[in-house]
Amino acid sequence: MEAFEKAIGYTYQNKALMNEALTHSSYSNEGKRGIHDNERLEFLGDSILSLIVAEHLFTHYRHQPEGELTKLRASLVCEQSLFQFAQKIQLGDYLHLGKGEEHTGGRERPSIVSDAFEAVIASIYLDGGLEEAKKFVLRFIPEHMDVKRVNALSDYKTALQEIIQKNREEKIEYVLVSEVGPDHDKAFTIEVHLNSNVIGTGRGKSKKQAEQFPAK
């Protein structure tokens, strides 16, 4: 616990929140009673991360229009970026994993580690408030971002969002249709809905990856 707190630069008042953030479902599903996995924290952390990054970009990139800010935010909150951030604090080393995930390289699996990173953000927010969560997140955000380079790497979700934003009355939503397979080899199927219509379906090894295919 002390090593992890030192790595993230934050000391928890409620150590249980830290443990929950570091616990993958494969560990809690092994019959360990009273142990909660980090999926609910990940859900909350995703929104907190998006808020912190959006506010930072709004403040520091004052001359960029909405579409460019959307691309910048997407590049910072995508699975690949979160995995890179997590590697800087060696987050994978601290995770509680089930035996299956442990033996199949779960500590280096981007989907697991990036989800845990979001869970850690939520745990800091719940334990110490938004300002502490902001301090943690902003240490990973590059001081200067090349907007043109980010545009070239824009993902399909961002591209679709830009199209939808041109019509304010339209709304898109990503819906999880199915989740199959053992914890160490999950497959997620996700639909993208335009208002109430399904316009794309995709499958991937993580929810974030699966969302890219229907957007494409």
Commentary on this structure:
The structure is a single chain. The chain has 216 residues and is mostly helical. The protein folds into two domains: 2-154, Ribonuclease III domain (Ribonuclease iii, N-terminal Endonuclease Domain, Chain A); 155-216, 2-Layer Sandwich (Double Stranded RNA Binding Domain), CATH 3.30.160. Helix content is 56%, strand content 12%. It contains twelve helices and three strands; from the N terminus they run H-H-H-H-H-H-H-H-H-H-H-E-E-E-H. It has a three-stranded antiparallel β-sheet with strand order 1-2-3, covered by helices on one side. Strand 1 and strand 2 (187-194) form a beta hairpin. Helix 2 (15-21) packs antiparallel against helix 8, helix 4 packs across helix 8 and helix 4 (39-60) packs across helix 9. The longest helix is centred in the N-terminal third of the chain and has 22 residues, at 39-60. The radius of gyration is 18 Å and the shape is globular.
